[in-house]
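Ex. 9. Protein: Peroxisomal acyl-CoA thioesterase 2b like 3.
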Amino acid sequence: MAGSLPLLSVRPIRCMVDERFEVRVQDLQPGLRVTLQALLQSEDGDFWEAFGHYVSDETGHVTVSKDPSLGGSYEGVEPMGLLWSMKPIPGSRTGLRFRKKDVYTPMDVHISVYEDHLTEGFREKPPIALVVTQRWYTAPGIQRVNVTDKGLKAALYIPPGPGPFPAVLDLWGGGGGLVEYRSALLASRGYVALALEYIGRVDTDGKPYKVDNEYFEAAFTVLKEHPQVSPERIAILGLSFGVSVTLGMAVYSSVIKPRCVVCVSGSHIMPVNGSLADVFAEIKKNVKNTRYDEEQRIIWRDLLLPIPDDPLKKVEMGRIKCPVLLIVGEDDQNWPASESAEDVSQVKFISFALFTTDIVSKQIYRI
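Predicted structure tokens for Peroxisomal acyl-CoA thioesterase 2b like 3:
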């Protein structure tokens, strides 16, 4: 690289987290082996990285959207591979999960170019070019409101402008807590979004808070009655365990009438007309079916297998009166998402779409 000054560009340098960016390196020697690395530090202080191996073309350029990665954390032509393939750096503490907590601050992603094809030792070798790009979950003008009406614990995100807007009831999974970054991003795309905490809630005295069907109906009603929401255009978005709640409410609630439902890597297996307590009780019966992978990570998907033939143990999908989108991560080890989707696909109802992928985050960046 003597005498040359490589130029690394990332465009746009500042954008929303679901937007594509273009990563390009210029003024390299033709046929030079280089590694592109993306590195970020989470709010918990942990470092995450992804990297791809490239060879510059006859003009000395590498264009990530057009050129294949020959190795690293991803291979092939992957425009967003530097983001979707991120993992904790070697030596990190175990059990990490990346979640953005403060949605009003950006993710600073350091994009670096290194000479040769590296798989380790990035900290010991200086990059030949470096750019810091910002990825945001919240667009300018998004309003956040704490919601405690009707006993709820939730955060409401509202786009700028008078509305009325379509709305989404945002239900996360069994990890519990109030997870807001998806709602912030939905609001940035023109939806009023209510992130609802429902698993792991406790009263002020530390006792478990009773969450029943009425709790979700209250959340739906808060959205429906909001002056900036179009009451006939409310969707429910469920992830993992949130899928069970979403489908159960869509079928059995006399209050919740969603315009559509979106279910990400979950299952329709649950006691008909059952509460959350009933669902957990059913799961507890099969705890013996849990197992571990080679890295001692727990696998929960067998808790609901085999798919029951008894209709009383599954949501009556034929009763759903709105469009349904299932997004299935085929490598999901928490829920039998693919088996459940196959079972659901045998049921004829008004409108159904199935999207399967081995890596959900990868495909989200592609569409």
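Check your answer against this statement. The first strand starts at residue 7 and ends at 11.
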